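Quick one:
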Amino acid sequence: MAAALVGYLEVVLLNVQGPQTNRWDVFDQQTPVVPAATFFAVALGVAFGAVIRRSVPAMAATLVAFVIVRVGIGELVRSHYIAPLMKTTHDFNAVGTQADPTAWWLGFPNYYDSTGHLLGNLIGPGAGEPSYVIQYFQPGDRFWAFQTIESAILAGLALVVLGFAVYWVTRRLT
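Output:
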């Protein structure tokens, strides 16, 4: 309950800042992800406690597993929930936060010459004259869909882990 309240408070505070706030920067701090992540952490704690049967090692294992899963989801999985959009432009100032401050810009823009050859993502001396730029992004209006997807993933993982904990305890009792 407290996790839901904290996540909700973050949403309220961001709404006070206005519609141009980039919510993607604080993705992990908002409802519904905060309560889902808390549920997942508690489930991990219960499971490790059931398996290890010692408090401090179970807490350490819970912390390590939680961090690995959350970082793994955030860095490897999250950007692929929905296929990103591609922005192609000849205006080199019309990509990134200059183009849309509410979008999640994925990686660096790629610069191409007039023949379509990739010059790289950081233009410097001797790189050639860029003709256009391409960058992938997730628009701001997808934010809540991403929140829902990630919350469902975390809640589903929590249920699986709790199911394992129940199985482990009942198997040990018989």
